[in-house]
Amino acid sequence: MRLGLFTCGYQRYPLEKAFADAKRFGYDYIELWGGYPHAFVGDLKVKTTAHIRELIDKYGVPVECFTPEHNGYPYNYMMGDELQWERSMMYLEDAIDITAEIGAKKMLISAGHAGYEAKDMDIMKRLMKSLRRLTEYAEEKGVTIVLEPLTVYESNVITSLRDLDRALSLVPSSNLVGMVDLAVPFTTGEPAAEYVRRLGDRFQYLHIIDNDGVSDSHILPGDGCLPLKEVLKEIQEAGYDGQATIELVTGYLKEPSVYAGMAIKRVREYLEEE
User: Fold this and answer.
1) 265 and 258 in contact (C-beta within 8 Å)?
2) Which residues of 126-145 are buried (b: 16+ CB within 10 A; e: fewer)?
3) Which of 133, 156, 201, 207 has a CB 3.0–4.6 Å from the CB of 181, allowing a cystine?
4) Radius of gyration, alpha carbons of the chain
5) What is the rounded CA–CA span in Å between residue 224 and residue 109?
């Protein structure tokens, strides 16, 4: 697998530190977090993406996926009135533009919580309206949207393989694909490799993380309860050997370099062991 570094854990440092560490530790690519202070969409629309492209050239580490912050702070296309929905769509369309500008090819989104009072029919209607609009725009820009299921602790929209498969089937496009974050099947009782088998060529991305089994926690690989080595082997056996970002987030802000180095070392060992 090609292993990526997620820059979210470096938010208390300049973005360049994440690029430097990606090169130092041997990461294959970067998944760029689209939040303050690094790559917030609104800022990049004003200041351009030139500094990000300069970092790519300087360190020789490509940005292969852009992940704009959304789902509640302050954008969530699954909740709120029509004005909020339109604002969220415009924000994510701008994010697609930025993805294309930095040559990332992929943009990762998920479906935020629709609210406890939302009815299933209304949730599906809003989801389909959103995905169709974003996918059509992505097709124009040559960007592939990667749709990520969330845990049941984070959302009530796409939280399982069945939900993801249905969404991809209802919006058929080569510019809309699926993925899995390993916390999702572990907390919902699904086999992670089944995502690969069920989705086939529609499965095009992976988030590697450990988990405690009872929350949406993203734990350093090897420090949680997930049988990570075995799960990764099953995913490979199912036929997936592509992009896999090690998704360390806010739990490791205090020492992002230390944990980024530990994480890739452990994951490589898991992947190389027979």
Assistant:
1) no
2) bbeebbebbbebbbeeebbb
3) 207
4) 18
5) 25
Residue 274 has pLDDT above 80, yes or no: no
Q: What is the per-residue DSSP string for 219-250?
A: B-TTSSSS-HHHHHHHHHHTT--SEEEE---G
Helix axis angle for 256-272 and 15-25, nearest 10°, is 30
Please provide the average confidence, as pLDDT, over all residues in the chain: 96
Please state, in angstroms and rounded to a whole number, the distance separating the CA atoms of residues 168 and 176: 7
For residue 182, give the nearest of 163, 166, 165, 195 by alpha carbon.
Answer: 195
Count of H-run helices and E-run strands, the chain? 10, 8
DSSP type of residue 91: H
What's the half-sphere exposure (Cβ side, CA atoms, 13 Å) at 214? 0
pTM above 0.90, yes or no: yes
Beta carbons within 10 angstroms of residue 179's beta carbon: 27
Q: Give the separation between CA 226 and CA 232, rounded to whole angstroms.
A: 11
Among residues 72, 69, 144, 70, the alpha carbon closest in space to that of 106 is found at 144
Amino acid symbol at 173: S
Which amino acids are annotated catalytic? 148, 247
* Model confidence pLDDT, tens digit, residues 5-64: 999 999 999 999 999 999 999 999 999 999 999 999 999 998 889 999 999 999 999 999
